[in-house]
Every structure is written in structure tokens, then in C-alpha cells.
Amino acid sequence: MTTEIAVEDRESAPRLDNQDPSIFGQTPWQTVGPFFHYGLPWKGGADLVGTSDMGARPDLFADEHYVLNRSSSTGTPDGVVIELAGQVFDAKGVPILDAMIEIWQANAAGRYASVDDARDDAPLDPHFIGFGRASVDADGVYRFRTIRPGRVPGPGNTLQAPHLAVSVFGRGILKRLATRLYFDGGDGNDVDPVLCAVPEARRHTLIARQQADGRWWFDIHLQGDRETVFFAL
Amino acid sequence: MSAARRDPIAYARDDDGMPPSLVPDYRSTVDRSPRQPLIAIPPTLTETTGPDQWDRLMVGPQGLDLTAQHKGVPQGQRIIVSGRVLDDRGRAVPNTVLEIWQANAAGRYIHSADSWDAPLDPNFTGAGRVVTDAEGRYSYVTIRPGAYPWGNHKNAWRPGHIHLSLLGPAFATRLVTQMYFPDDPLIEIDPIANAVPMPARQRMVGRFDIKTTKPAWALGYLFDVVLKGRDETPFEDDHHDH
Ligand SMILES: [Fe+3]
Prior knowledge:
The complex is a heterodimer.
Chain A: H1 7-12, E1 81-89, E2 99-104, E3 131-135, E4 141-147, E5 163-170, E6 177-183, E7 207-210, E8 216-217, E9 220-221, E10 231-232
Parallel strand pairs in A: 1-8, 1-9, 6-7
Antiparallel strand pairs in A: 1-4, 2-3, 2-5, 5-6, 7-8
Chain B: E1 39-40, H1 45-48, H2 54-57, E2 78-87, E3 97-102, E4 127-131, E5 137-143, E6 148-150, E7 156-158, E8 161-166, E9 175-180, E10 207-208, E11 219-222, E12 225-227
Parallel strand pairs in B: 2-11, 2-12
Antiparallel strand pairs in B: 2-5, 3-4, 3-8, 6-7, 8-9, 10-11
The structure holds fe (iii) ion.
Pfam family, one (chain A): Dioxygenase_C
Family (chain A): Belongs to the intradiol ring-cleavage dioxygenase family.
Organism (chain A): Sphingomonas aurantiaca
């Protein structure tokens, strides 16, 4: 009677880990989970215009653990100041209470504050960076104060309509969901190269509408009849 | 607009190590994952640019030592995590910020919604930021986070992990991930880690490293973060005439 014990096999099995060149590649995404509030949003992260506490949730942890500070005051950017707000809904239409939104946008002249936007035909605004981050509040509402972006070139000689790049994070969201916010009645919405790549019946999910109080409202539906269009980048 | 303007160079698409949006074993994904396919869009300046002045946004101390943010020393195993931020062709990503948050040694978050009955540590917050140097290197000191139970299924425990968030150079390079530890048997039964197919899952497992371990002070772990790189395939100018 013989028993084979494959000790050699076990010992030679490679122990793959982060440092192993044989599996080198993009680090996989993982969810932010439910407890990101003391690590990611900062006071003023959702206020791209002035200085305030918008965006943070210091109510969710003790004050001595608030190790992240507010944005520095940069002065007032050019352009039309707008407020954006909305909610993130799950498949059952329930607002998600542990979601986080980020925005990235051009300034009023249509220029990104980035070394990779090297154009000389649109000015930088020293008071505008264009990146914002907001946790939703206790009612599941996110809010930003920013300026209405100008138009930015698209592929070829096209011109994009005013828009914001939007990222959605949260518990149960394994990978950032990337979408865009356009403005109802925005200049060039009908010819925007990205909006035109979206089936017409779903374009409305990317359009913010102005409320009676002047705020722009943009809800995000993760799933269901009104599912927001998300992009592969 | 100048007619001679060239379209921006795209970043790579997701490689095959990315998790899908829907992973039924991770229950929260069921109602929170899109069912429509993602729509691929052409790269525009919107996706190929990103905030490089994050230091004007997130002011405050850089948390190089998460064990030194309070009056006393936190409980637990002190560790030094170091590595590089690279793109998917192995090129360094300098001057980019890593945001870090984690549970304490007992697996408890300071967050008020964390109801796990393990002790808080008054000397540990578990949040910080570090910035990569010119070679893409970073290093920070912290406490090894403990495992914690969660409500996903019966007897569910998350392996110890450190949450990491990176902006990278562009909107397209945004990454949020988790770093795991090599001796942790919970990884292979964790629905969140298992959302990533093998062998890419092992990219999230750090390596114990005796060279960066400081004698009588802290254990060293290595963890490189790999972001999407620009797809520098030349434009197909040769074919334009066909
Ligand atoms: Fe966690």
C-alpha cells in the first residue's frame, strides 16, 4: 500500500503577491466600504468657490479624529456660481446613505487646471482647481458649490457641451462608476460627441435640471428603469 | 480652435484583473450595480486631465506616521508600509497623493456606524495621506489592522486590510483599493477580495519584507500600486489614405 504525499508540489507552488512580476498589472478596484467618512471627504471639498465645510461628515466620528483639514482659500473664481445637488438611488429607489461623489470640471473659460491641458487658447483661473468631493448627508443628498464650466474641445474638431465628470463611490460599489453631468438647455448638448454616443432614450439620465430655487438637481440611479448611463473610460 | 490640435492620448482600459460591478456573494452589490453595459467613450481632455494641485485642496499634515497622531502610542503591531506608485508599463507616478484609512488593531473603525464590539483606541485614528517622491516611492507607518465581522452572511469576517485611494494624473486613473496581508487565511473566503479573479487578486496582497523591517521597532511590508497608463500606441497615420 502506497501513499503519495506531494510535498514537493506544495513547496514549489509559487506564492503570488503584490511584488511578483508574473502578475504585474493594474491594481484591482475595491469598494470604499461604509466607513470612508474620516478618511476621504474634507471640509470644503464640495465647495469649489469659497470656503465652507461643505462635503465632509465630521458628525460621524469624534472631533479628535478629525485629522483632515479644510481646503485653502483660493479667492473667487470667474464665472457663474452654481449649486448642484442630488441623490444616489439603489435598484429599489431607496436613497443611498453611504455614497460619495467626486466632480472634475473645466473653469468658466473651458480650461482644465492640469498640466495635461496645455492649450494656450483658453486661460487658467488661478482661483479654480475644478476638483471636488462630497459625501452625501444624513438624508442621502450630496451638494456642491462650483462654477458653470465653459466648453472644452472634444475629439477631432468637435466642441463638447458644458459638463462635469462625475464619479460615484459607496458601499457595494466595487469600482468607481463614472458618468457625466450636462446642463438642461446647455450650449451644444445636441452635438456633444459623448452625449451623442449615448442612446437617445437614455441621454436624459445625464442632464441636470434647474429647480425653482436655482439649484441644479442631478439624481443618480444605479439600477432600474431610470438607470444612469455609466462610462467605460 | 486650432485645426492642428491632436486628440489626447487615451489611458488604458480596465485590464482583466478588475472586479465586475455585480458580485452576488457581496450582497450590497446586488441592488447597487448597473445592469446596462458601460458605454465606451472616446478619450477627451475631460478624462485625460486631472487635478495636479491636490495640495491646494487637501491642506493639513501629511500622515506619514499614523501612530503619532495622538498623545500616546496606539495598541497593536507597528508596521511600515512602503512601495511605489507605477503605471501599467512600470513607469513611476511621482507627486501623487495616497489617502489611507483603516481599522485599529482590534478591527474597529472610529466611525460611529461601526457597531463591532471591539475596543476603540484613543491613540489611533487610522487616516492619513502620503505623497510619492520623484521615483513614485512612498512610505508610511501605521498599526496592522485587525479582522472584523460584517453582516454580509453568517460568520462573515473581513481580512485585515488598509483602504487606499489614489487620484493619479487623470480622471481616468482614479483608483480605490485595499491592501491585504500575506499570512491572512480570511482573504480566500472574503467576498470583496474574491470579487477580483485570480491571479490578479494576489496583486492586492502585500509582501512581508525583512529589509524594510526596523530592528526592535516595526515590521516592513511592501506594496506597489499600479495605475492605468497612457496607451501610447502611435496614431494610425499610415492608414489614413486608405
Ligand atoms: Fe474596511
